[in-house]
Every structure is written in structure tokens, then in C-alpha cells.
Amino acid sequence: MSEKDQRATLEAKDRDELMTIASTLGGKPGSRAKKAEVIDMILGLIADSEPAAPKPRRGRPPKAAAVEDAPVEEAVF
After folding, report:
1. Rounded to 5, what percent of the chain is helix, strand, coil?
2. Which tens digit of pLDDT belongs to each residue from 42-55?
3. Greater confidence, 10 or 52?
4. Span 69-73, mean pLDDT?
5. Which of 3, 16, 26, 27 could staple 22 via S-S, CB 3.0–4.6 A?
6. What is the pLDDT of residues 25-42, one digit of tens each?
7. Beta-carbon neighbour count of residue 40 at 10 Å?
8. How far apart are CA 70 and CA 15, in angstroms?
9. Alpha carbon 25 to chain centroid distance?
């Protein structure tokens, strides 16, 4: 969901709902914070909590099954 869509969804909510959402996300909106300020805070908290895309692994691929995992035949002496 893009930030524009998220902002539109948040703007449809009333200020009390936004205050609850911000508090749940770990924000501390002031009692006199404007609705737009609370929305900005929520969007900032959401952006900070989203995990970054995993970086592609580089280098050679891992070896096939290790020799230690292969079945061992008992030696008869």
C-alpha cells in the first residue's frame, strides 16, 4: 500500500482513533496534536517498522551434503 493510500485511509479516521493507533505503534502524540501531525507521526512509525528488503546473497553457493552426513559402513578387521 502506498503512502498516499495509507494517508487517505488515516484521514478518514477521527482524531481519537488516530491517537490510539499512534500510541499502539509506540508514538507519544501530545494532547494538543493536530490530526495532520498525528497522521504524519503514524506514517513515520510505520516507515520505521517496515523491514528492509533482504539483500541478495553473494558468493559461491553452499556445498552439497556434507561428507559427515553420508552413511558410514563399518570396517571389518
Report:
1. 50, 0, 50
2. 999 988 776 666 77
3. 10
4. 63
5. 27
6. 999 999 999 999 999 999
7. 15
8. 64
9. 12
Q: What are phi and psi of 40, to 5 degrees?
A: -60, -40
Three state DSSP letters for 42-63: HHHHHHHHCCCCCCCCCCCCCC
CA angle 37, 41, 46 (to 5 degrees): 150
Fill in the amino acid letter for 16: D
Whether this prediction's pTM lies above 0.70 is answered by: no
Please state the φ and ψ torsions of residue 20, each to the nearest 5 degrees: -65, -45
Alpha-carbon separation of residue 27 from 18, 44, 63, 72 (angstroms): 11, 10, 46, 59
